[in-house]
């Protein structure tokens, strides 16, 4: 039997390239075993509360380039985010259907870009992040869902999330740090004052004891005949 050969397209002869996760993939789409699918990365932004007041406040703050938001990153058919976790020993990373977060009001989506990424490689990344982001490390100002989404987007190679998503928490964290620093400074000042009072009291007691000893020595050394009995109590 004569063998039939398939001509390799010229587009398949180029060198291999690397994906966002560093994996090697062929630039040839006809070479199916090495073909890596394209994953579209979407940032979904929610008003952190679904109440009318919160939604109205966020619309005003958004015009000023800030706001109080919950964020999630969609890759393939699920969105991923970060929260306090179910208990102290669980991860804070979780997934759900896109734009369906209970208790929050969906606001908008931002396209972050596309990457050549296999599902298996993405799952490896999520498993790694699940260990790096435990639920008990959650902090509403310094390590929240927006920070996680920013980290995930950077790991995927599509850059950080827009600054208006995270800058309110950043300002809150800066204020918190300054308040904490002020409290520590006041505590240190109070400790210094306490130590100064202790040293002064100790010195006063020392001087008072010395004066009492000198006075008593003078009494003991005086002439008994000249001493006034009503003023001096002699030891037996």
3D architecture notes:
By secondary structure, this protein is an alpha+beta fold. The chain is 41% helix and 18% strand. The protein contains 4 helices and 7 strands, in the order βββαββββααα. The strands form 2 sheets. The chain has a 5-stranded antiparallel β-sheet. A two-stranded antiparallel ribbon has the order 1-2. β1 (17-18) and β2 (24-25) form a beta hairpin. It is elongated, with a radius of gyration of 36 Å. Mean pLDDT is 74; it is low at 1-32, 172-179 and 232-236.
Major sheet summary line: 5 strands, antiparallel
- Strand content of the residues, in percent? 15-25%
Cα-to-Cα separation, first versus last residue: 136 Å
Unreliable parts: 1-32, 172-179, 232-236
- In N-to-C order, the SSE pattern is EEEHEEEEHHH
| SS-based class | alpha+beta
Shape: elongated
- Alpha plus pi helix count: 4
**Largest sheet: spatial strand order:** 6-5-4-3-7
Overall mean pLDDT: 74
Task: Using the CA coordinates, give the radius of gyration.
Answer: 36 Å
Total beta-strand segments: 7
Summarize the amount of helix as a percent range. Answer: 40-55%
């Amino acid at each position: 039997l004569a063998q039939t050969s398939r001509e390799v397209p010229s587009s398949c002869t180029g060198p291999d390239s690397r994906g966002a996760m560093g994996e090697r993939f062929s630039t040839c789409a006809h070479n199916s075993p090495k073909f890596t699918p394209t994953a579209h990365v979407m940032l979904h932004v929610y008003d952190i509360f679904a109440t009318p007041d919160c939604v109205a406040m966020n619309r005003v703050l958004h015009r000023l380039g800030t706001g109080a938001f919950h964020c999630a990153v969609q890759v393939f058919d699920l969105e991923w985010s970060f929260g306090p976790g179910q208990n102290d020993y669980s991860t804070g990373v979780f997934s759900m259907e896109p734009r369906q977060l209970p208790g929050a009001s969906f606001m908008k989506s931002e396209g972050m870009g596309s990457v050549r990424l296999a599902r298996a490689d993405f799952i490896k990344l999520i498993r790694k992040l699940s260990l790096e982001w435990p639920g008990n490390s959650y902090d509403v100002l310094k390590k929240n869902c927006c920070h996680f989404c920013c980290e995930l987007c950077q790991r995927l190679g599509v850059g950080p999330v827009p600054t208006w998503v995270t800058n309110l928490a950043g300002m809150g964290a800066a204020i918190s740090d300054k308040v904490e620093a002020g409290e520590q400074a006041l505590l240190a000042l109070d400790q210094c004052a306490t130590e100064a009072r202790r040293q002064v009291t100790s010195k006063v007691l020392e001087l008072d004891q010395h004066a009492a000893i000198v006075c008593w020595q003078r009494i003991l050394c005086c002439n008994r005949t000249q001493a006034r009995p009503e003023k001096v109590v002699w030891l037996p």
